[in-house]
Amino acid sequence: MANNNNILKYASLGFQFFVGLGLFMYLGKKADDFLKFSMPLCIWIFPLLFITASIIKLIIETGKHKK
Asked: How many Cβ atoms sit within 10 Å of the Cβ of residue 54?
């Protein structure tokens, strides 16, 4: 039973990651269109910030010691 909980936990983390990545790419595209940059700057920066924040959050959450 504990194995199923782990599978669901990591599957939901993966789903959240891909949805968040897609959302930040969409927001980056909209920001580039709004700000009229000559090159797509926000569509690169927004997802990069999301990935960095996700990795930091994952490290913090998995590094907690349960007592």
From this structure: 15
Give residue 52's Cα distance to chain centre. 8
CA distance 32 to 4: 42
Its pTM stands at 0.76
Separation CA 28–CA 46 (nearest Å):
6
Is the distance from CB of 32 to CB of 21 less than 8 angstroms?
no
Question: Which residues are within 8 A (CB) of 39 and not within 5 positions of it... i.e. 6 or more apart?
Answer: none
Residue with tokens 């990651």: 17
* Extents of the domains making up the chain: 2-62
Q: Which of the four pLDDT bands, split at 50, 70 and 90, describes residue 2?
A: low
